[in-house]
């Protein structure tokens, strides 16, 4: 992370004297009952990286959608230099040269990687006619070149994109910027589903864009990334543009303060748990599964152990095999000294092991359920007699949970309609409702903004007092050190090192994860 | 302190802080009434029926109507359960037909109770078989039940050799011919089963699991829902309902005909969908399925009263299915536009 900070100072030297590539002129967007964006005036210039920061619900994504024509402004105008008329539809935005990259990459699972790179060529806005042929050798070369820009030169072009992990998926989507003409590249939380190691590819891409004279708009709430990339930072809060500042003249703390309107209280790493203070609750011996190979560690009562590593280091395989989501090839897992062999999530819950999935949308919550339904899904048995639900008892419990975890919208709001932070609170509350001894949290703050992130941290830290054994799988070194008593670093499926958070730095972790190479 | 901030900066206000419970109830009613398309269609149909035909609201016609819709109504309940899981069962008609001929023909058709048991056991067995292939072997519900449709109907013709099967038991028809206070028993059975299914899906752990796995299978599995077990149970329950409906059909007609249950798959799927259930699974109410059944029943009945030719009746029904589908998509997009607009634009991005 420190290296990213260094890159920021060199990047922000240029000043913008030219004509604006795009102008938002007093733009506002009102949904029924909600003012998402009000009266924003903002311009972007050629060869500039403009970051839009804000907490969830601050309106930053809506602003991006307005610029990309995905939403029609309720007031004001969106103008792109060299395009007659306003931007009110996606095809107008494409014609004007605005390319939007979504937070959830737009990937057709059954198409090959190459077909996905060229996906926008299928849209009616492209110049291709339906009867034109697709493919050809020249195309493979161009695909490879485009993928090379995002660090995927060696990808198998014919492989179905559905087999890619979340990071590479996003990278394939990003490579489309190399095959589509555009003047404005909009990255809407594009790095939310990727991990730290993909960031350098995004960085390279953004640099290339800037050199080519494009305007890059980078919507994010990750401060290190914003400071590594942006020339200027526009801060949104509650739908309004609070301030636009030159990156060189500000600090991450200042931006965070602008974003949430008050200073962020940082968490101190927890004290290490001394060996005799508490009994061992979870004991993992020689577990192999997927890319994880022969892993042994143990977690004490009231202890949080971090599992940190790069993609493919086996961190998720390990977590999923402990909690019955993935088959274990070898090894034993003991909870309170008793050997357990959960073959399904259900069996794991019975053994008091609960797992919070990394993939919130797919495995975290049921999309058509309200918060009440999702909160009690794992513990329906405790609200029922002879299979019949005791609705009143369920309602009472849900009211207590929404209150305790400060879940937005209460019991009746659809979980899928909540912000990422609130969705995650629902998922965590559900996981804890099963009263597990062992809690495995896979990327607990993935895609969650600063304000809510601290919230989640406090909930996780609260588990120390509840005497749980907690395993936190994370791809962010800083998060590992903030949350955990100890951090185990995985590399290529094996344990490469173990650190006490109190006395370690993010540098220690990343170096170990990379195998001592200099970054 | 920080938690307050998070709450303040998150998206939409759920409800006004000072709202009274009365206001909330009113708001809920407003919300509810907005989604009652099937009820409005039915009311409009009834008004139209009353205006165009004097005979429609006669007690004879109404009890006849109830007799007609009860059997398909029970099949629709079965279809509803399966559609909730995200599946579909196109073998319901063939299975009902097979259950009908076997219940009338096996063991000489001399004992009505035995006939009921045969029908239900057959339905349960076929449901378990379908459910096993779909839940445990991961096959597509559509393909499995397509096969079962052909298999079942083939067996019906093989068993009957194309002739109706007449049961010997004197009381075979009783259930379909008696009425309580002018209401046919068949109708009472249908409504009682509808209430039972509604209770099952809304008030039991099992029902909650059905909705969960229909909506998000992976999330349900990860939350500890026994997905496969729940799924096969749904197919068995549906099979029992269909088998029983097959017996009732034979009882109503007085004999099991080889064509009994024809087109039930179309009618039941159409009724479930017009009742507001999502074919993708996870959404739908029993009330909707009941209203859907009534809508199609009223239309068929009315077409007969208005002397429309039988062939045209089928065409009308088909047209209505398409119309209903279009209607549900209109409703669907209106409700979800804000949430899914960005993904709807996938092709353009």
Automatic annotation (TrEMBL), chain A:
<protein>
    <submittedName>
        <fullName>ABC-type sugar transport system ATPase subunit</fullName>
    </submittedName>
</protein>
<keyword id="KW-0067">ATP-binding</keyword>
<keyword id="KW-0762">Sugar transport</keyword>
<keyword id="KW-0547">Nucleotide-binding</keyword>
<feature type="domain" description="ABC transporter">
    <location>
        <begin position="22"/>
        <end position="263"/>
    </location>
</feature>
<dbReference type="InterPro" id="IPR017871">
    <property type="entry name" value="ABC_transporter-like_CS"/>
</dbReference>
<dbReference type="InterPro" id="IPR027417">
    <property type="entry name" value="P-loop_NTPase"/>
</dbReference>
<dbReference type="InterPro" id="IPR050107">
    <property type="entry name" value="ABC_carbohydrate_import_ATPase"/>
</dbReference>
<dbReference type="InterPro" id="IPR003439">
    <property type="entry name" value="ABC_transporter-like_ATP-bd"/>
</dbReference>
<keyword id="KW-0813">Transport</keyword>
<keyword id="KW-0677">Repeat</keyword>
<feature type="domain" description="ABC transporter">
    <location>
        <begin position="276"/>
        <end position="517"/>
    </location>
</feature>
<dbReference type="Pfam" id="PF00005">
    <property type="entry name" value="ABC_tran"/>
</dbReference>
<dbReference type="InterPro" id="IPR003593">
    <property type="entry name" value="AAA+_ATPase"/>
</dbReference>
UniProtKB/TrEMBL annotation, chain B:
<feature type="region of interest" description="Disordered">
    <location>
        <begin position="1"/>
        <end position="22"/>
    </location>
</feature>
<feature type="transmembrane region" description="Helical">
    <location>
        <begin position="90"/>
        <end position="107"/>
    </location>
</feature>
<feature type="transmembrane region" description="Helical">
    <location>
        <begin position="65"/>
        <end position="83"/>
    </location>
</feature>
<keyword id="KW-1133">Transmembrane helix</keyword>
<dbReference type="Pfam" id="PF02653">
    <property type="entry name" value="BPD_transp_2"/>
</dbReference>
<feature type="transmembrane region" description="Helical">
    <location>
        <begin position="179"/>
        <end position="201"/>
    </location>
</feature>
<feature type="transmembrane region" description="Helical">
    <location>
        <begin position="113"/>
        <end position="134"/>
    </location>
</feature>
<feature type="transmembrane region" description="Helical">
    <location>
        <begin position="289"/>
        <end position="309"/>
    </location>
</feature>
<dbReference type="InterPro" id="IPR001851">
    <property type="entry name" value="ABC_transp_permease"/>
</dbReference>
<feature type="transmembrane region" description="Helical">
    <location>
        <begin position="232"/>
        <end position="254"/>
    </location>
</feature>
<keyword id="KW-0812">Transmembrane</keyword>
<feature type="transmembrane region" description="Helical">
    <location>
        <begin position="141"/>
        <end position="159"/>
    </location>
</feature>
<keyword id="KW-0472">Membrane</keyword>
<keyword id="KW-1003">Cell membrane</keyword>
<feature type="transmembrane region" description="Helical">
    <location>
        <begin position="266"/>
        <end position="282"/>
    </location>
</feature>
<feature type="transmembrane region" description="Helical">
    <location>
        <begin position="315"/>
        <end position="333"/>
    </location>
</feature>
<feature type="transmembrane region" description="Helical">
    <location>
        <begin position="37"/>
        <end position="59"/>
    </location>
</feature>
<protein>
    <submittedName>
        <fullName>Ribose transport system permease protein</fullName>
    </submittedName>
</protein>
């Amino acid at each position: 992370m420190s290296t990213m900070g260094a890159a920021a100072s060199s990047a922000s030297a240029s000043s913008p004297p030219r004509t604006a590539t795009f102008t938002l002129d007093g733009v506002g967007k009102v949904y029924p009952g909600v003012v998402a964006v009000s009266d924003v005036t903002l311009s972007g210039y050629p060869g500039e990286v403009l970051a839009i920061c804000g907490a969830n619900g601050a309106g930053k994504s809506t602003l991006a959608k307005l610029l990309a024509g995905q939403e029609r402004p309720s007031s004001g105008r969106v103008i792109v230099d060299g395009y007659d008329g306003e931007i009110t539809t996606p095809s107008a935005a494409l014609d004007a040269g605005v390319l939007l990259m979504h937070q959830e990459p737009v990937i057709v699972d059954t198409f090959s990687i190459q077909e996905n790179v060229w996906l926008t060529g299928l849209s009616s806005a492209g110049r291709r006619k339906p009867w034109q042929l697709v493919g050809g050798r020249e195309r493979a070369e161009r695909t490879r070149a485009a993928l090379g820009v995002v660090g995927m030169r060696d990808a198998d072009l014919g492989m179905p994109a559905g087999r890619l992990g979340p990071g590479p998926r996003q990278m394939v989507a990003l490579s489309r910027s190399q095959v589509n003409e555009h003047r404005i590249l909009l990255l809407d939380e594009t790095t939310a589903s990727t991990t730290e190691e993909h960031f350098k590819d995004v960085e390279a891409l953004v640099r290339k864009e800037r050199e080519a004279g494009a305007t890059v708009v980078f919507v994010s709430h990750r401060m290190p990334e914003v400071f590594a990339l942006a020339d200027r930072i526009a801060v949104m809060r509650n739908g309004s543009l609070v301030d636009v500042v030159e990156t060189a003249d500000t600090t991450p703390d200042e931006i965070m303060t602008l974003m949430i309107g008050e200073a962020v209280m940082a968490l101190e790493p927890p004290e290490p748990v001394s060996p005799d203070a508490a009994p061992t609750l979870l004991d993992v011996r020689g577990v192999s599964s997927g890319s994880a190979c022969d892993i042994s560690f143990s977690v004490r009562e009231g202890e949080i152990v971090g599992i940190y590593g790069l993609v493919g280091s086996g961190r998720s395989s390990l977590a999923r095999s402990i909690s019955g989501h993935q088959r274990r090839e070898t090894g034993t897992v003991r909870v309170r000294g008793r050997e357990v062999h959960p073959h399904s999530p259900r069996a794991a819950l019975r053994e008091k092991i609960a797992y919070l999935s990394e993939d919130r949308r797919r495995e975290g919550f049921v999309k058509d359920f309200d918060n009440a339904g999702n909160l009690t899904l794992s513990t329906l048995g405790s609200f029922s007699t002879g299979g019949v639900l005791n609705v009143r008892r369920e309602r009472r419990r849900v009211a207590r949970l929404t209150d305790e975890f400060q879940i937005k919208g209460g019991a009746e709001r659809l979980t899928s309609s909540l912000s990422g932070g609130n969705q995650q609170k629902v998922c965590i509350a559900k996981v804890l409702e099963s009263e597990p001894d062992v809690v495995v949290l896979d990327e607990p703050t993935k895609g969650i903004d600063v304000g809510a992130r601290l919230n989640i941290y406090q909930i996780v830290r609260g588990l120390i007092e509840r005497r749980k054994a907690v395993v936190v799988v994370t791809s962010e070194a800083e998060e590992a050190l903030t949350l955990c008593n100890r951090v185990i670093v995985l590399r290529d499926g094996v344990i490469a090192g173990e650190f006490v958070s109190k006395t370690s730095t993010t540098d220690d972790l990343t170096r170990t994860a990379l195998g001592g190479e200099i970054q | 302190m920080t938690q307050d901030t998070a709450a303040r900066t998150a998206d939409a206000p759920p409800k006004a802080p000072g709202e009274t419970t009365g206001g909330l109830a009113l708001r809920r009613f407003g919300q509810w009434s907005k989604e009652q398309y099937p009820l409005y269609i039915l009311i409009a149909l009834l008004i139209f029926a009353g205006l165009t035909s004097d005979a429609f609201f006669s007690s004879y016609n109404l009890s006849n109507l109830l007799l007609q819709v009860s059997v398909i109504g029970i099949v629709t309940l079965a279809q509803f359960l399966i559609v909730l899981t995200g599946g579909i069962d196109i073998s319901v008609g063939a299975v009902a037909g097979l259950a009908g001929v076997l219940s009338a023909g096996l063991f000489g058709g001399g004992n009505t109770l035995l006939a009921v048991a045969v029908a239900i056991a057959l339905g349960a067995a076929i449901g378990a078989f379908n459910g096993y292939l779909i839940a445990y072997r991961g096959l597509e519900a559509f393909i499995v039940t397509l096969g079962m449709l052909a298999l079942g109907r083939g067996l019906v013709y093989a068993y009957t050799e194309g002739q109706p099967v007449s049961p010997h038991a004197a009381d075979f028809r009783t259930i379909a011919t008696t009425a309580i206070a002018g209401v046919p028993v068949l109708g009472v059975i249908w409504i009682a089963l509808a209430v039972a299914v509604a209770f099952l899906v809304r008030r039991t752990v099992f029902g909650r699991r059905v909705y969960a796995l229909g909506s998000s299978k992976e999330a349900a599995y990860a939350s500890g829902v026994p997905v496969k077990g729940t799924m096969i149970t749904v197919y068995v329950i549906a099979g029992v309902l269909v088998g029983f409906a097959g017996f009732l059909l034979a009882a109503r007609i007085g004999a099991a005909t080889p064509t009994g249950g024809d087109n039930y798959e179309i009618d039941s799927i159409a009724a479930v969908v017009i009742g507001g259930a999502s074919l993708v699974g996870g959404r739908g109410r029993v009330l909707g399925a009941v209203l859907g059944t009534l809508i199609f029943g009223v239309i068929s009945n009315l077409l007969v009263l208005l002397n429309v030719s039988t062939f045209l009746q089928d065409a009308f029904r088909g047209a209505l299915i398409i119309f209903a589908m279009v209607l549900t998509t209109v409703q669907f997009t209106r409700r979800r536009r804000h949430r899914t607009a960005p993904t709807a634009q996938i092709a353009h991005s």
